[in-house]
Specification:
The chain is mostly helical and 165 residues long. It has one domain. Helix content is 73%, strand content 7%. The chain has five helices and three strands. It has a three-stranded antiparallel sheet with strand order 1-3-2. A hairpin with a 2-residue loop joins strand 2 and strand 3. The protein is globular and about 60 Å long.
């Protein structure tokens, strides 16, 4: 077993746990946590900004990232429209649209699994430059779609959720 394969085996359980947590947040009624939403907004914004700065020297990658974010805006607004908000004696809750959240998660996991498969089965030749995420605009498009969706969705959810709280 090569070190790349061993590293992949160590990363898979971590990724699986995070995917499970993400799917869990996309299914069913969720407690309204403005602090978590704010953290996600800041986190996704910073990562997207950093990726955008890194992609500035790779125009196709930058265009893909921007395209993903641009497509995410109407998708998030539609998802927000389908979200149910409620204030109960136990607290404030929201129920996101399951289909959109699960579809985005499946898209992310599928792309991640594909990239891991390619890297493990086609390691770079000795002396070759390391693989870069900027070589694959599709990866940045999908990240832009997911990050843009959650940024816009959580901004809207915080606004609507605070009104019902």
């Amino acid at each position: 077993m090569t070190s790349t394969q061993a590293a992949s085996l160590l990363i898979v359980p971590l990724v699986a746990w995070r995917v499970y947590a993400r799917v869990r947040r996309n299914i069913g009624r969720q407690r309204f946590h403005p602090g978590r939403m704010t953290f996600a907004i800041v986190f996704f914004s910073l990562i997207t900004l950093l990726l955008g700065v890194g992609a500035a020297w790779h125009p196709p990658a930058l265009a893909a990232l921007a395209g993903g974010v641009a497509l995410a805006v109407p998708l998030a607004l539609y998802g927000l429209h389908l979200t149910k908000f409620e204030a109960t004696p136990e607290g404030s809750f929201y129920t996101p649209h399951t289909g959109i959240g699960v579809a985005l998660t499946v898209l992310f996991v599928g792309r991640l699994a594909y990239r891991i498969f390619v890297i493990v089965n086609n390691p770079p030749a000795p002396g070759a430059p390391p693989l870069s995420m900027y070589q694959s605009p599709l990866t940045l498009f999908i990240f832009g779609l997911i990050a843009g969706y959650y940024i816009v969705y959580y901004v809207g959810a915080r606004t609507r959720g605070l009104k019902t709280a």
